[in-house]
């Protein structure tokens, strides 16, 4: 396996020929069983390293009666207790600033990223220079698989803040040898300026969230610009479901005339592109030699076989500063066995990450994920660009309403037929009825980052149905 060492060391001068399909041909195409043997060796090295350097892991494994030397198979590893995000936050509160799972001296932390803390205590990511370079090399590999090359100009159109996504895309493109343009997002009027700079700089690749790309396309249209004329050849996304949702993917491809690639897992396990596309179809590979991924039963947390749906559990194989060992994601996915016909012999997630277990809601006994609703409404020819999902209760009955902007020019006389058609499609997909409410174009704010479309507000449904507040 090319450049497979512990601790990780990469040849920073290495780059494949532009016409080479694989960054590391051996690592990416070897029989999966052989790779798993190497991964087990690496897991044992990572666990021994964490045992020696991290009081957090030593305490956790001591309590569970586990020692790194007892891990003799991947099945054994599946019995190691998972780490939950709340454990990391609590540990950092007790051991400022990076927690007792920091495995390098504090002086070796050269980069700080983290969560925003809008829903609680922020989590700080302390990143050594070694890890920064490992992430850059890993992301370069995955971006290469997407067809990005040194001749490209990559626009990073997401906030250049604590958010790991922006910096991961930036350093990956830089390591690959491309021209990287860190324009960011989130300031007033910035999207219009983005369009101007894209033309001026000859941008060929866009990185953002799917929501922002759709907002960019709408803004272009409002300025009299055809998004397909911007010259993009490839777009890759993270931060929210979308790029592997068929209707969203098709909409992005048709608007921009570019190939669309999905990527992304969790900032805590960066390189977050370890779930990343490498083919021109929906879905992502689990690049197991970067971050070992298991798909587990959400209730028992036991690993599931290929073909099953569950929640990913991640183990970093190249991080030395804050290694994550069996971190529970609480996301949802379904995975398939490696297939040599795809070229790369990694497990495949055909729908990518399509929701968070936390985001799931239950209506009349049916479990519903927002991405399933997105796929239906965004595929409709009369969809106007945004929607909201409203959950409420009428007496003892749960009620689901979907407010959907219609396209400009849809006659009001056509609204009842349109909403009935969408309602019927949603019932077929979800298994429960949904009241579709037609909304004028541009009713809802657009986002410069991640879309938040689910509203649980019991009074709001009465208002939009004309009853007014009670």
Automatic annotation (TrEMBL):
User: Has keyword Ligase?
Assistant: yes
| Pfam families linked | AMP-binding, AMP-binding_C_2
> Nucleotidyltransferase: is it a keyword of this entry?
no
Domain AMP-dependent synthetase/ligase intervals: 115-310
Q: Which residues form the AMP-dependent ligase C-terminal domain?
A: 365-458
The alphabetical list of record keywords is:
Ligase
Task: Spell out the InterPro entries in the cross-references.
Answer: AMP-bd_C_sf (IPR045851), AMP-dep_Lig_C (IPR028154), AMP-dep_synth/lig_dom (IPR000873), ANL_N_sf (IPR042099)
A molecular function annotated in GO for this UniProt entry is: ligase activity
Protein known as? Phenylacetate--CoA ligase
Give the species this sequence originates from.
Answer: Amycolatopsis acidicola
């Amino acid at each position: 396996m090319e450049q497979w060492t512990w601790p990780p060391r990469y040849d920073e001068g290495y780059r494949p020929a532009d016409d080479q399909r694989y960054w590391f041909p051996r690592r990416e195409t070897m029989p999966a069983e052989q790779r798993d043997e190497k991964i087990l060796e690496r897991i044992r090295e990572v666990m021994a390293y964490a045992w020696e350097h991290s009081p957090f892991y030593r305490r956790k494994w001591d309590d569970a009666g586990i020692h790194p030397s007892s891990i003799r198979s991947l099945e054994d590893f599946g019995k190691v207790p998972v780490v939950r995000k709340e454990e990391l936050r609590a540990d950092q509160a007790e051991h400022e600033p990076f927690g007792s799972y920091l495995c390098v001296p504090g002086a070796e932390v050269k980069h700080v990223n983290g969560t925003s803390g809008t829903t609680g205590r922020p989590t700080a990511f302390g990143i050594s220079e070694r890890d920064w370079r490992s992430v850059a090399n890993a992301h370069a590999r995955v971006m290469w698989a997407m067809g990005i090359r040194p001749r490209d100009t990559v626009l990073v159109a997401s906030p250049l803040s604590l958010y790991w996504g922006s910096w991961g895309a930036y350093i990956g493109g830089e390591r690959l040898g491309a021209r990287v343009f860190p324009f960011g997002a989130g300031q007033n009027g910035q999207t219009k300026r983005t369009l101007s700079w894209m033309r001026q700089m000859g941008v060929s690749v866009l990185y953002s969230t799917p929501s922002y790309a759709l907002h960019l396309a709408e803004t272009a249209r409002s300025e009299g610009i055809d998004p397909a004329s911007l010259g993009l050849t490839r777009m890759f996304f993270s931060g929210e479901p979308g790029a592997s949702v068929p209707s969203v993917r098709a909409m992005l491809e048709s608007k921009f005339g570019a190939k669309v690639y999905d990527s992304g897992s969790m900032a805590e396990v960066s390189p977050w592109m370890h779930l990343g596309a490498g083919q021109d179809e929906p879905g992502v590979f689990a690049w197991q030699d970067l971050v070992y991924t298991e798909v587990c039963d959400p209730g028992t947390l036991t690993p599931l076989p290929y073909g099953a749906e569950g929640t990913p559990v991640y183990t970093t194989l190249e991080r030395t500063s804050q290694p994550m060992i069996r971190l529970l994601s609480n996301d949802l996915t379904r995975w398939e066995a490696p297939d040599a016909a795809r070229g790369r012999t990694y497990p495949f997630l055909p729908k990518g990450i399509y929701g968070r277990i936390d985001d799931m809601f239950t209506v009349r006994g049916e479990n519903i994920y927002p991405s399933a609703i997105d796929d239906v409404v965004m595929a409709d020819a009369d969809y106007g660009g945004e929607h909201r999902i409203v959950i409420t209760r009428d007496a003892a009955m749960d009620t689901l309403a979907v407010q959907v902007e219609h396209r400009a020019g849809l006659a009001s006389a056509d609204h009842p037929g349109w909403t009935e058609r969408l309602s019927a499609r949603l019932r077929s997909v979800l298994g429960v009825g949904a009241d579709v409410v037609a909304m004028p174009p541009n009713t809802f704010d657009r986002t410069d980052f991640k879309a938040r479309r689910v509203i649980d507000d019991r009074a709001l449904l009465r208002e939009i149905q004309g009853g007014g507040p009670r």
